[in-house]
Amino acid sequence: MIRGTIVVDTQICKGCELCITACPQDCLELSPGLNQKGYRYAQLKNDTCTGCVNCAIVCPDCAITVYRQAKKPRSVAVTA
Ligand code: SF4
Ligand code: SF4
To answer: What SS3 state is found at 66?
Structure first.
């Protein structure tokens, strides 16, 4: 499975929870703390992110950047 992770711009996020609803891996939650505008912000709650980008697509404020782990080159079986 492809591994991914996200970075949330916590000062842009307004805590609307759209990304939390859109995440098929249920790996997002709202922070306990507040940003400078007084909003709780989205954050990862576990390491099950696949980098599917759903959260970034639905975010109305473009507050999420998604990163995917680079694919490892396939190993090739060699027979003599
Ligand atoms: S990239 Fe996909 S799996 Fe990862 S947090 Fe966003 S919606 Fe969830
Ligand atoms: S969709 Fe965007 S603004 Fe809404 S909680 Fe998620 S990161 Fe924050």
So the answer is: strand
